[in-house]
Amino acid sequence: MSKPTQQPLNELRALAYRVDPALWVREQLKIDPMPWQNTFLRARRGASLIALTARQVGKTTVAACAMAHTALMQAGSLSVIACPAQRQSAEAVRRVRGYLEQVGVKFTSDNVYGLELDNGSRVMALPGSDDSIRGLTVDGWIVADEAARLTDNLIAALRPMRARRPETRFAMLSTAWSRTDPFWKVWSGDDRSWIRLKATADQVGIFSASYLEQERRNLGEVGFRREYLGIPESDQASPFTWELYERATSLRTPLVPPGAAFRPPPKAPAVELPNPFHQLKSQGVVP
Fold it and tell me: Domain of 242: which CATH number?
């Protein structure tokens, strides 16, 4: 079955799609974004966004739409997405591929973990480890999906990717997990440069009351609040972070090499004292 031919756009409509990603998603991809997704898609260049979401509210979908729009409209750009596992990142790239195919884009390179368009733009799926992702310069989107499950080291490796490209958008999207993970540190922080979006079950209104009640029974109160209401597992922040735990339990090489420094101090040599009784003189026989 042949693919439908994409109709040419007039110049004004093409310009509107370039400046308004939400309009492009609605009319070209036939996806009707929710209000929070509209805000995400229309974020200014260089914005930092953090979205606290429930399950199945379209966080990966909106991230894929945003990266697809940038790849199409910003020739030669690079966008990346990092998830706890690279197969999850690859699934997001798969969605980007599908959206671009829907509007008739041609690829010069296409594989599980990345794609390149004929305009030179690239989209890459990063692994869930910081070991092999350092050194990239990104000018499109940097997306951390399920960011609450990512490590501090990985987030720290993602942020400098836009150091030389201040127009790059940086987004952290996640359901709630704990009050000490890297996502919650930003969400609960006081840095006003972040655009905070909330898409929990009580905000988006897409789940029926009967479904939510069934999920509450199946997951339990703690699990339900975490997965659907954006409330982390514990009501109180623990003073013991994973970093403290690792430092307390990991084996470390001593700063001083083994040797005399680890033995008890040597005992002082014994000093021989004179016996005073040896100097006594005999005075005869005691009766």
Answer: 3.40.50.300
